[in-house]
Specification:
34% of the residues lie in helices and 20% in strands. The structure holds D-xylitol-5-phosphate and zinc ion (ZN). The site of zinc ion has 6 residues, from strand 2.
Length: 215
């Protein structure tokens, strides 16, 4: 069964506690938290006070996806706010080996995110240090975008790299996930699926989450 991580970016921010409770009661595994700075990506989402408020109500682990430049500046702060996993973009952190160590020293699981245009080959010498790799299947910045089909091949390549090295690295996918793309991703080797608009845009998010769990 895939790990399902609903993205709160698509939640109703005026009713955030209601939507958090909905995820608490659902079969979802994690809360996916998208932090955007308006520099690394064109959009600005939310910052520390909102993550703190989420953590006060969330009963499942927080999977914090940092879409910010120089993410190493904020790792300890997000760890203190309750992040279980922190993922940082390959494209945003120059000294990634050091950044991953910093995340682990802060007590969190560490992951690298790759943009759609970044090949999985950049992970060759760092995969061993990743608890998770998050492959973007849309260009980061916005929810509700169309899934980029080349992601399926990337998942297969990454899965082979992980098996070759006999690692337990989790493959997570983010962007345009629905039942159709989700099925293909799981078949290709994805372990965790982020879903925003597909979950919260539905009149019955809990049943959608159950459907995704069955993939
Ligand atoms: C996009 C974010 C995603 C977003 C996914 O930059 O990283 O987590 O919420 O949204 P959907 O599932 O609507 O594509
Ligand atoms: Zn995300």
């Amino acid at each position: 069964m895939p790990i399902i991580a609903p993205s709160l970016l698509a939640a109703d921010f005026a009713n955030l506690q209601r939507d958090i409770e909905l995820i608490n009661e659902s079969e979802a595994d994690w809360f996916h938290i998208d932090v955007m700075d308006g520099v690394f990506v064109p959009n600005i989402s939310f910052g520390m006070p909102v993550v703190k408020a989420i953590n006060e109500h969330a009963k499942k682990p927080l999977d914090v996806h940092l879409m910010i430049v120089q993410p190493e500046r904020y790792i300890e702060e997000f760890a203190k706010l309750g992040a279980e996993t922190i993922t940082v973009h390959h494209e945003a952190s120059i000294h990634m080996h050091r950044t991953l160590a910093q995340i682990k020293e802060a007590g969190c699981k560490a992951g690298i995110v790759l943009n759609p245009s970044t090949p999985v080959s950049v992970l060759e010498d760092i995969l061993i240090d990743c608890d998770m790799v998050l492959l973007m299947s849309v260009n980061p910045g916005y929810g509700g975008q169309k899934f980029i089909p080349q992601t399926i091949e990337k998942v297969k390549k990454l899965k082979a790299m992980i098996s070759e090295r006999q690692l337990n690295t989790i493959i997570e996918i983010d962007g345009g996930v629905n039942l159709d793309t989700g099925k293909k991703l799981v078949e290709a080797g994805a372990d965790a699926l982020v879903a925003g608009s597909f979950v919260f845009g539905n009149s019955n998010p809990k049943s959608i989450i159950s459907e995704l769990k069955k993939l």
